[in-house]
Amino acid sequence: MSPVGLRARIGAVLYVSLAALALLSGRSTALPAAAQQGRGPVTELFRKDLAGIPGKELLVSLVQVMPGGTSVPHRHDANVVVYVLEGELLMQIEGHAPVTVGPGQTFYEGPDDVHLKSDNASAVKPAKFLAFLVKDKDRPVSRSVTVAPGGA
User: Fold this and answer.
1) Which CATH number fits the domain 3-144, given the four candidates 3.20.20.105, 2.60.120.10, 2.60.40.1120, 3.30.428.10?
2) Average pLDDT over residues 78-82
3) Strand, helix or coil at 105?
């Protein structure tokens, strides 16, 4: 399968999975978001080998971030789609401006992206999101990285 075909297939799997979980959670299906400080529980909801894509798996996790919770720079070595359920997240990928993502909104990061920020935008309200990862089965979910000064 060509790299373009593989990307299209992975994108279709992520879209269908996100839409299905949105339906199950009673939310609209419209798609418009490492070591942590203040990170609440991370609950693995689903893990499945991807048919027709040897060595790849889909992982879906529910992640909670306490008020004021922050992240350290990290990467996932995966295609990641974040779907925000509650609260607001301040997200930033190296080389891009930070964005705020709220309920019903999504955020994408690619396998080569360095995730500089994955922070709760509120100091008083918790945030909750679903993380959908298409990843190599033998790779960790996340790993910390060192970013050169001014890397944002």
Assistant:
1) 2.60.120.10
2) 95
3) coil
